[in-house]
Specification:
about 90 residues; 3 helices
Length: about 90
């Protein structure tokens, strides 16, 4: 349940960041979204693997979420961190 609320908050923060467009405040909104989304992703890893002890064999067809979408999320957050740090002054 907490992971679902974290995902919902990350989606809302992404919407806020998109709503800023190229106006002032966009960078701050992107930072907030990216830090929250990354923290939520790491918390979900902790909760699912270490705390709850969910094994990959018990996921069934949901294993595709872990195999396809989670790596895309990691790449997206990493790329956004790189871009935000690269263009600090602009």
């Amino acid at each position: 349940m907490p992971a679902a609320y974290g995902d919902l908050a990350a989606a809302a923060l992404a919407g806020v960041a998109l709503a800023f467009g190229r106006r002032p405040g966009m960078r701050a909104a992107l930072w907030v979204f990216n830090v929250w989304g990354t923290a939520d992703l790491l918390f979900t890893f902790y909760q699912g693997i270490l705390h709850l002890g969910i094994s990959a064999s018990s996921l069934g067809a949901a294993i595709w979420i872990v195999l396809v979408f989670v790596p895309l999320l990691v790449c997206t957050h990493t790329t956004l961190f790189v871009l935000l740090l690269k263009h600090r002054g602009g």
